[in-house]
Write a structure and sequence with these properties.
Elements (H helix, E strand, L loop, with lengths): L2 H13 L1 H17 L3 H18 L2 H12 L14 E4 L18 H17 L5 E5 L5 H12 L7 E4 L5 H12 L3 E7 L3 H10 L3 E7 L14 H23 L1
Parallel strand pairs: 1-2, 1-4, 2-3, 4-5
Helix pairs in contact: 1-2, 2-3, 4-9, 5-6
Amino acid sequence: MTLLFLAKKFITFFVEPLGLILALALVGLYFLYRSSYTKARVLLSISVFLLLFFSYPPVANNLIIPLENTYQKYNLNNNNIEYIHVLGADHYDNTNRPLSSQISNASLKRTIEGVRIFKAINNPNLKMIFTGYEGSSNLITNAKISKVAGISHQSIIINGQPKDTQEEAVLAKSIINDKSFALVTSASHMPRAMTLFKNMGMNPIAAPTDFHGKNQAWLTQPTIGAFKKSEIAIHEFLGIAWHYLIH
């Protein structure tokens, strides 16, 4: 794991909602300890406001829905493909748990969507590619689930080297080149992923899954689930901004 990658992760944490709120609260507590009550009151008030703001369901939904609605679900009439690329997500290494509990919800949904497309197209030459970081465990777990669904190991390609979406695109380019393929990832992540893959000169067809946004009444209470949606959306907006900044 490179120093630049770790630095990017560290900086990203503190500009996303949770890290930003924690940083403001900690600095506020520091000023409170130093008896700088005005500064402490301002920083702690901002941190509480941001916590409530990002935890409010209508705010979270309005942040994430524009990302998720960028691409429609995969059209199975797009059957002239040779590859389905499933991007990586989190997993949990614990052999004491069943296979279904060793994979995150996002990763499970991505794998299921990839399997759905694979089975619907029914092409004997079709390959499923699993990429991502965390060693190879996440990929092996995804592959095992695919095998449970009836996909043979000959139809599965796994690689645990890419640390982020950019590196996943570079790897896919070496395998797929400029052929059309189904790109499977979470709906909120799809706009950034499609941009990265297209910039590599590839021809991905979006296959979004793991949707979170929904229309809710404005008269509702803050929730942890809404805060998580806001975190996901802000992470993606920052990723998109970073991509355009360095390009």
